Amino acid sequence: MDLEVVVITGMSGSGKSVALHALEDAGYYCVDNLPPELLTSFVELEHAHHGHRVAVAMDVRSATALPLVPQQLAGLREQGVQVRQLFLDATNDVLVRRFSETRRRHPLSQAEMREGPRPLLHTMRLERELLAPLREQAHVIDTSTLRSAQLLSYVKDLLSVPPSRLTLVFQSFAFKRGISMDADYVFDVRMLPNPHYEPLLRALTGKDAPVIDYLRQQPEVALMLAHIGDFLDHWLDALAHNHRSYVTVAIGCTGGQHRSVYLVEQLAARFEGRWNTLRRHRELDGI
């Protein structure tokens, strides 16, 4: 069956609608809030009408049926369907702020009214518990610090790579803005020499030649690059054999501008011939 299905799940307020818009722009036939019971029949119906790329969003409003989804997706894969799973997440404080700004009611709040109103954080903890099995199977995107345009770009980049082999996502970030929730591995490189303290380099980034030249001359930077690269060389085959579709490697420095950006670029160049490879620069992409 020549068909690709993208399933988007995630926390309420994390940006699922934005992600679905990205898929629609990319030519997918999209359905929001599809009841899980209808997933298999919907995919079969759409394929019968010559649709080859389908995207569905599901959320906790279908809580009682969500346990059906992993088995349904496994069945679709057995039929030769290419299935991609995306899970959008954000920190609790960010989600609370978004609900406050939009004045929207949490999808679970209506059900909880029967037992009396509960704090939003309690409702969100319940939502995380209900969605945990789907999160474990999916590629996670932390939208806590992302603008809508960044999320659109990230989703389109993910869809641009072939789904047949493991995809490596290298991401730079600033520790001062928090660790990415979507990272499988996090490396702290704040102990390395910092170009920020070089007046001529301060306004540049790890993509600029003067910064690249400076960092290449630092033995500690070369050693860190070798250690991270050797670690990934050793374990990526095992991850791929374990049916992992995506692995996100986050490199963090203080400001997310120089050292982490440089290391992400170097690591991506090292591995892109062997694996699908994507680069993300969380702080630079938002500029």
TrEMBL record:
Listed A to Z, the keywords are: ATP-binding, GTP-binding, Nucleotide-binding
RapZ C-terminal domain mapped to chain residues: 167-284
What residue stretches are annotated with the RapZ-like N-terminal domain?
3-157
Enumerate the residues binding GTP. D59, V60, R61, S62
Q: Which residues bind ATP?
A: G10, M11, S12, G13, S14, G15, K16, S17
**GO molecular function ontology, one term from the record:** GTP binding
Matching entries from HAMAP family are given as: RapZ_like (MF_00636)
Specify the protein name.
UPF0042 nucleotide-binding protein
Taxonomic source organism: Diaphorobacter nitroreducens
